[in-house]
Write a structure and sequence with these properties.
498 residues, mainly alpha, 2 domains, 17 helices
C-alpha cells in the first residue's frame, strides 16, 4: 500500500548543489510515480466524458427535441456535479498527508465524514433538480416541449446524484491512497452500463428491433422509447453502478485493508467536516467558476451566427480532450505533494511541486505539437462546412498559445492543493477568469481595443481566455513559491491547518 511513499536512502535533491541538479534528481525519482498516478486518472476522466458523448449521440439520433432537452439539462446538472466533485476532492490531500505520515488510524474517520458530506450534497443536488429547474427554463425562455422533456430528464438524473457524490468521495479517498487505477476501471464500467442502457431506454423496442431483427420477443419489441427521460434513467443507473462498485472494491481490495474503512461507521464530527469543507469548498467553487466562464462565453457568442457557434464548439471540444492529461497530472501532483508533506519533508515537497510544473510545460508543448499536426484532420471529422472549418482552425491556433498557461495554471493549482492551500486558488481563479478572461474577452469581442482595433468577435473571447489563463498561471506560481518556502521554514499555516 502506498507504494510511492517509501523514503529512499539516496541523497535528497534538496541537498544537491545546483537547481538544475536538484531538478534532474527529482525527475528521476518522480517521473514514474507521477505517471502511474496520472495516466489512470486521465483514462477515468475520458471514460466519464464518453458518457456525455454517448448521451448526445444517442438522443440526437432519436430527435432534435430530445437532443436539445439533454443538452439544456446537462448545462444544469453538470455544474452541480462538478461543484460536488471539487468539494469532495478536498479529501485527497487530507488522506495523502495522513498516509505520508503513516497516521492510518485517522484516515477512516476522515473518509466517513466525507461520505456524510457527499450524502448531503447529493440529496441537495437532487432536490434542486427536482424543484428549481422550471423557473430556470422560464427565465431562459426554453421552448415548452424542450423544457418538458428536459425536466423529465433531470428528474431521472436527480436519483443518481447521491450515488455520484458517494463515488467521488470514495474516489478521492482511493486517489489519496495512491491508488488511481480503480477509478479508471470503475469509470469504464459506468460507460459499459451507460451505452446499452441508453440505447434500450432511449430507443425502446423499435430501436432493438432495428438493431437485432424482429425475432425478439413481443414484450421486448413493445418497450416504449423514452427519449430524454430514458437517457436520464441510464445516467442515474450508471452513477449508482459506479458508486456501489467503488464501495465494494474499497471493502474487498487488500490495498485498503490497513485502513479498515468499512469496519465501523463514524458518526458526523463537526471539526473533521469543517476541515474537509475548509479545503474542499474553495476547490468546488473554483471549478464552478471555470465552468460558468465557458458557459457565459457560449451564451455571449450565441448571437454571432451558426458558423461562429459551431466553430467555437468544435475548437473547444477538441482542445478540451487534450486538456485531460494536464488535468490528470495536476490531480496526481496533489497526491505526491501531500504524501511528501505528510512525511515531514517540506524541502522535498517543494522539489516535487516544481518538478510537476516543469512536467506540465513538457505536456503543453506536446499538446501544441498535436494541435499543429492534427488540427486540419480532426476538425474535418467534426464538420464538412468549409466556413466552420476555417474559423475553428483559427481558434485552435489561439488555443495553441494558451496550452502553456493552461497547463501551468492547473498544475500549479494541483501542487497548492497538496499543501491544502485552496482559498487563494479560488480568489485567483475568480479574478483571472471573470475579470480578465470573461470581461476582457467580452470587451475585445464586442468593442475592440480603444478604437485602435475593431471588435474581434469570437476571437476576442479566445484572446481573453489566453489573458485570463496567463494571469492565473503567474499569480498561482507566485503563491506556490511563497507557500512552499513557508513550509520549508516551518510556518504552521503553510499546510492549511491554521
Amino acid at each position: 500500500m502506498g507504494g510511492f511513499i517509501d523514503r529512499s536512502d539516496c541523497m535528497e535533491p534538496s541537498t544537491l548543489s545546483t537547481p538544475f541538479a536538484r531538478l534532474l534528481a527529482t525527475s528521476r525519482r518522480e517521473t514514474r510515480p507521477l505517471l502511474m498516478l496520472a495516466l489512470p486518472i486521465c483514462g477515468a476522466q475520458l471514460a466519464q466524458a464518453g458518457m456525455s458523448v454517448a448521451d448526445v449521440m444517442m438522443t440526437g439520433r432519436l430527435s432534435a427535441t430530445d437532443l436539445a432537452a439533454v443538452s439544456v439539462g446537462s448545462s444544469l446538472w453538470m455544474p452541480l456535479m462538478l461543484f460536488m466533485t471539487g468539494t469532495l476532492m478536498g479529501l485527497t490531500p487530507i488522506v495523502a498527508q495522513l498516509l505520508g505520515g503513516r497516521r492510518l488510524g485517522e484516515i477512516r474517520p476522515n473518509v466517513h465524514q466525507a461520505l456524510w458530506v457527499a450524502l448531503v450534497l447529493g440529496l441537495a443536488a437532487a432536490a434542486l433538480l427536482w424543484l428549481a429547474v422550471q423557473p430556470i427554463f422560464a427565465l431562459m425562455k426554453v421552448p415548452e416541449e424542450v423544457a418538458s422533456r428536459s425536466a423529465a430528464y433531470l428528474a431521472a438524473v436527480a436519483f443518481g446524484m447521491p450515488g455520484a457524490a458517494l463515488f467521488q468521495a470514495l474516489r478521492a479517498f482511493s486517489d489519496g491512497m495512491n491508488h488511481t487505477r480503480p477509478s479508471l476501471w470503475i469509470s469504464l464500467l459506468g460507460l459499459v452500463v451507460n451505452i446499452p442502457s441508453n440505447y434500450v431506454l432511449i430507443h425502446g423496442g423499435d430501436g432493438l428491433t432495428a438493431l437485432f431483427g424482429d425475432w425478439l420477443p413481443a414484450w421486448v419489441q413493445t418497450l416504449p422509447a423514452l427519449g430524454a427521460l430514458g437517457c436520464g434513467i441510464a445516467t442515474a443507473l450508471s452513477l449508482w453502478t459506479m458508486s456501489l462498485a467503488m464501495a465494494l472494491y474499497t471493502r474487498r481490495a487488500p490495498a485498503y485493508r490497513e485502513v479498515s474503512l468499512w469496519h465501523a461507521p463514524t458518526l458526523p464530527r463537526l471539526k473533521m467536516i469543517g476541515e474537509l469543507l475548509h479545503v474542499g469548498v474553495p476547490i468546488g467553487v473554483a471549478i464552478f467558476i471555470e465552468v460558468t466562464l465557458f458557459t457565459l462565453i457560449a451564451l455571449f457568442i450565441a448571437s454571432m451566427g451558426e458558423v461562429t457557434v459551431a466553430a467555437h464548439q468544435v475548437a473547444l471540444n477538441y482542445t478540451s480532450i487534450l486538456f485531460m492529461l494536464p488535468l490528470a497530472l495536476s490531480m496526481a501532483l496533489t497526491v505526491r505533494v501531500g504524501n511528501t508533506l505528510g512525511q515531514q519533508r517540506p524541502d522535498y515537497a517543494r522539489q516535487v511541486a516544481w518538478f510537476g510544473v516543469v512536467a506540465s510545460i513538457v505536456i503543453a508543448l506536446l499538446n501544441c505539437a498535436l494541435l499543429w499536426l492534427t488540427a486540419d484532420v480532426v476538425i474535418s471529422l467534426y464538420t464538412h462546412d468549409q466556413h466552420v472549418q476555417r474559423l475553428a482552425l483559427s481558434l485552435v491556433l489561439l488555443a495553441m498559445i494558451y496550452q502553456l498557461s493552461d497547463s501551468l495554471q492547473v498544475n500549479l493549482a494541483g501542487a497548492l492543493r497538496g499543501y491544502r492551500d485552496t482559498r487563494i486558488i479560488m480568489l485567483i481563479t475568480l479574478a483571472s477568469y471573470w475579470l480578465v478572461g470573461l470581461a476582457g474577452g467580452h470587451w475585445l469581442g464586442t468593442r475592440g481595443l480603444f478604437g485602435l482595433i475593431a471588435p474581434l468577435g469570437v476571437h476576442g473571447y479566445w484572446i481573453g481566455l489566453v489573458g485570463g489563463l496567463t494571469v492565473a498561471a503567474v499569480l498561482l506560481g507566485e503563491r506556490l513559491r511563497r507557500i512552499s518556502r513557508a513550509a520549508m521554514e516551518g510556518r504552521h499555516d503553510a499546510l492549511g491547518t491554521h
